Amino acid sequence: MDILGSAKSSNIIPNQEYLLQGSIIDPSCEILLHRLRGLCDNVDSGTETFNDHEMIFQIRGANMTTPIVFRARRALDHPDAPWHLRYVGQPEIGDKNRPTLVRSYIDVSTSNNLVQFLNEMGFRLDHEFILKGYMFHKGRMKITVSKVFLMPQTGNISNLEPLSDSYLVELSVVAPTGQDQLAEDMKMFAEQLRPLVQLDKIDHRRLHHV
Questions:
Q1: In whole angstroms, what is the distance from residue 103 CA to residue 125 CA?
Q2: How far apart (Å, rounded) are the C-alpha atoms in residues 100 and 119?
Q3: Cβ neighbourhood burial of 14 (10 Å; 0-12, 13-18, 19+)
Q4: Cα(179)–Cα(2) distance, integer angstroms
Q5: Do the domain assignments include residue 1?
Q6: Exposure winner among 23, 51, 79, 180, fewest CB in 10 A?
Q7: Does 10 fall in a domain?
Q8: Is residue 67 in a domain?
Q9: How many domains does the chain have?
Q10: What residue numbers bound the domain in which 150 lies?
Q11: Max CA-CA distance within the chain?
Q12: In the predicted model, is pLDDT for residue 210 greater than 80?
């Protein structure tokens, strides 16, 4: 735990995620999908879809003011596929002129006993949800349009309730540190999706106080 906390505070995790987010109401989603099919790569074979179950785990050390958060995700449509364990750091928001949010990011494939492993390490489930949607690629950029569903009880993936009447839209690139030109490319791509959706950098820490 001390080693992981030190790595987090020292920002030595090698990968960074450049991220822009927005939302679009349900009736306009199909128009956005049509535009993305025209702008993105390799859509001749059909739009890629996903149906994922994500679980958010937290652990808090004795000297930590904020917990360490890990995200465990599995593909419900592909039960034989590996689970994914993700760590997402706090966003770097010091440079207000930077076009995108930037945060530390690491993603690894794991065996299907990931949840048991996290519980035995002392992590506790904070919340979980289902993400259903569409995925596009434009060069190194990944664009997802997803509906967030609440689960009626832990582990129950039936009788799902949509969180809202809109879709979450995310534009992201995972790359080594220091490739800020990617952020400019993302900003230019995001401009092509206006006025359907406004993609912006969002400070998630502010949302916790709403």
A1: 23
A2: 34
A3: exposed
A4: 29
A5: no
A6: 79
A7: no
A8: yes
A9: 1
A10: 17-197
A11: 53
A12: no
Overall average pLDDT of the 179-195 stretch: 91
In this structure, which amino acid lies at residue 3?
I
Helices (H), 54-177: 114-121
Domain presence at residue 173: yes
Query: How many Cα atoms sit within 13 Å of 31 on the Cβ side?
Result: 10
* Tens-digit pLDDT profile for residues 57-114: 999 877 777 888 999 999 999 999 999 999 988 777 556 677 888 888 999 999 999 9
C-alpha angle with apex 44: 189 to 107, nearest 5 degrees? 60
Percent of the chain with pLDDT over 90: 61
Identify which of 53, 13, 21, 52 has the alpha carbon closest to the alpha carbon of residue 143.
21
Tokens 């997402």 locate to 88
Residue bearing tokens 């990931």: 114
Unique residue bearing structure tokens 């001390």: 2
CATH number at residue 26: 2.40.320.10
